[in-house]
Each structure stands twice: as structure tokens, then as C-alpha cells.
């Protein structure tokens, strides 16, 4: 059952930086002629861009129940996207309760392949609980589990080190990882929103990466694109954890949960690598997926520091 083209679709995380899938969802839905309400934390430049594109802007906070009730007022379908960090289970509970109160009938929630009750990642365990909350709330939730790493994380986490020192450093070593762009993830989520509520046996959608690369290969691709050397340095999980926490703290947003998640993944995936799974991009969106080299070209200033 497709969504009614006259109804408004709510997109949370619409101006987020991490992966930026919310922005891609907004853009995709608008391109299909749908009414979109974009929930943002503040009315800043990113919100203005969405508003100029045609989205209705609403300021909301996952920890503020009243603001969530206002955001879902008159909405039947919504995209739930919470950053990798603490608070996701509370956010899911408040959002689900607001949705039940205001008549929300379909949620597409962005989840992880690591979402399970015995996940070594605290974020994976919390993400699994969030999925359960939406199911218990009866919101016909479609769980979009991404079995890949976001290409955007390279720009977010490694961009500063590449620009300043030509360095990528983490504890993944030579492990080959699947990669997908946040744009493709957002386009998949938008397609699931447009498709509307699905039968119970079709409410779990797992999407793999479009390419598998280790960090040494990633450094080589970036070096070719920016025309200067980029080296990969393998760290211990503890050393990388310290660097991640220091980097987020320097930005004024300490993210210990994010550091816990990434370093736990670097340990767990050495024993049990993410299997090769279909990326689902062209199948669900009708568009070719964005390859890694193409992504770097699209985001070149994040790595070169020049326009």
C-alpha cells in the first residue's frame, strides 16, 4: 500500500551531519512531489537549505516529548534517524509514544546490522531495543538495517587528519569493509516510506555495501584524487578510542558512545566479518549506487581542503 501523495511525511535527522541520510530522504521525497516536514534541532543554514528546497521546517528534540508531538501532528509516515550516540532508546520510546498519540501509522527506522540483544557494541544493543519499541507500539515499522559503513564517515572522522597530516588512523587494520553512501541509504529509506506499511514478513530490510575496501585501499583512492600522499596507520583499539573521544571533545560534543561502538566493531569484525550482502540500491530506488571513487570526487574539499 503506497502512501497517499497528499499526506505529509516527517523526516527526523533532516539536517544531520553523520551520514546525512535524512537530508537525502528529504530531497528524494521532494523530487517525487511529496509533502515533507523536516525536523531539525535548530534553524540554521542547513535548515534554510531544506526550507528553500520546499520542506516544511519544524524544530524538535528527541528528548522533548511536546516537540515530538508537534512534529508528528497530522503525519502518517515518518523516518526515524538517531545519531550513533547515547539516548536512542529513550528517543525511540518518546517518538513512538508521540506517534501513537497523534495517529502515526508507519515508521522507517535507520538501524544497524549489529542490532541484536547480544551485540558487542552498546549501540547495536540499543538499536535493537529501539526496533522492539517501534514494534511494540504497533507503528508498522520497517527496520532498515545497514550492513555497511557510511562513506561519509571517512570525511567526518578522517577528513581532518587527511587535510592536516595526510593520515588515516584506526584499529581496523587490513580488514576489508563494505561501504555505502548516506545518499543511497536515504534514497532507500525514501523508497520504503513511499511504499507505505508492509506485511509483517517484509518489515526487515537489510542493505549491504556497494564496495568492499580496507583502509589502505581507501588511502590510495583518496591520494590519487587529491594528488598527494595519504598513509594509513593501524592503532590499537584503546589508542583509537582515545583519539576519537579527543576529536569529538575538541568539537564540543564528546561522544564516548560513538567511540565505544566503532572500536567494538573493529574488534568484533576481525572475528566475524560482515558478510557480502546485496546493496539493494538499484533494486529499491531504480538508481545506480554511488561508488567510492565517485563519492570522493563529490566530497573532494573534505580531503584536500581546497575548493
Explained architecture:
- This protein has helices at 21-31, 45-53, 65-72, 88-102, 122-136, 152-165, 182-195, 215-226, 237-250, 256-271, 281-285, 292-298, 301-304; strands at residues 8-11, 35-40, 56-59, 75-80, 106-112, 142-147, 149-150, 167-170, 177-180, 204-208, 211-213, 231-234.
- It has 307 residues and is α/β, with parallel strands linked by helices.
- The protein folds into two domains: 8-148 and 181-208 and 276-288, NAD(P)-binding Rossmann-like Domain (Rossmann fold, 3-Layer(aba) Sandwich); 156-162 and 165-174 and 211-274 and 295-304, UDP-galactose 4-epimerase, domain 1 (Alpha-Beta Complex).
- The strands form three sheets. Strands 3-2-1-4-5-6-10 form a seven-stranded parallel sheet, with helices on both faces.
- Helix 4 (88-102) packs parallel to helix 5 (122-136) and helix 9 (237-250) runs antiparallel to helix 10 (256-271).
- The longest helix has 16 residues, at 256-271.
Count every beta strand, where a strand is a DSSP E run of 2 or more residues. 12
- CATH H level, superfamily name of the largest domain: NAD(P)-binding Rossmann-like Domain
Q: How many domain regions? A: 2
Percent of residues in helices = 40-55%
User: In percent, how much strand structure appears in the residues?
Assistant: 15-25%
**Which consecutive residue ranges, at least 5 long each, have pLDDT under 50?**
none
The CATH class of the largest domain = Alpha Beta
Q: Using the coordinates shown, work out and report the CATH topology of the largest domain.
A: Rossmann fold
- Strand order, main sheet: write it out: 3-2-1-4-5-6-10
Cα-atom radius of gyration = 19 Å
Number of helices: 13
| Rounded average pLDDT | 93
Major β-sheet profile: 7 strands, parallel
Amino acid at each position: 500500500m503506497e502512501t497517499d501523495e497528499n499526506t505529509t511525511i516527517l523526516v527526523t535527522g533532516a539536517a544531520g551531519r553523520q551520514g546525512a541520510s535524512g537530508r537525502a530522504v528529504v530531497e528524494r521525497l521532494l523530487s517525487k512531489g511529496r509533502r515533507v516536514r523536516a525536523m531539525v534541532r535548530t534553524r540554521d543554514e542547513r535548515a534554510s537549505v531544506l526550507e528553500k528546497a520546499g520542506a516544511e521546517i519544524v524544530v524538535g528534540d528527541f528528548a522533548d516529548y511536546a516537540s515530538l508531538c508537534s512534529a508528528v501532528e497530522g503525519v502518517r509516515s515518518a523516518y526515524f534517524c538517531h545519531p550513533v550516540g547515547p539516548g536512542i532508546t529513550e528517543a525511540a520510546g518518546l517518538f513512538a509514544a508521540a506517534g501513537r498519540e497523534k495517529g502515526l501509522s508507519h515508521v522507517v527506522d535507520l538501524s544497524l546490522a549489529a542490532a541484536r540483544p547480544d551485540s558487542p557494541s552498546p549501540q547495536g544493543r540499543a538499536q535493537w531495543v529501539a526496533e522492539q519499541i517501534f514494534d511494540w507500539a504497533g507503528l508498522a515499522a520497517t527496520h532498515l538495517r545497514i550492513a555497511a559503513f557510511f562513506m561519509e564517515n571517512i570525511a567526518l572522522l578522517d577528513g581532518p587528519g587527511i587535510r592536516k597530516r595526510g593520515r588515516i588512523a584506526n584499529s581496523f587494520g587490513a580488514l576489508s569493509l563494505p561501504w555505502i553512501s548516506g545518499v543511497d541509504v536515504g534514497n532507500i529509506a525514501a523508497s520504503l516510506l513511499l511504499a507505505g506499511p508492509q506485511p509483517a514478513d517484509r518489515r526487515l530490510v537489510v542493505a549491504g555495501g556497494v564496495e568492499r575496501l580496507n583502509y589502505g585501499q581507501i588511502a590510495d583512492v583518496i591520494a590519487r584524487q587529491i594528488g598527494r600522499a595519504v598513509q594509513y596507520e593501524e592503532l590499537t583499539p584503546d589508542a583509537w578510542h582515545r583519539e576519537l573521544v579527543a576529536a569529538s571533545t575538541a568539537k564540543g560534543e564528546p561522544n564516548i558512545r560513538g567511540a565505544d561502538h566503532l572500536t567494538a566493531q573493529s574488534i568484533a569484525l576481525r572475528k566475524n566479518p560482515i558478510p557480502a550482502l546485496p546493496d539493494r540500491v538499484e533494486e529499491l530506488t531504480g538508481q545506480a549506487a554511488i561508488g567510492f571513487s565517485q563519492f570522493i570526487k563529490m566530497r573532494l574539499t573534505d580531503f584536500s581542503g581546497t575548493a
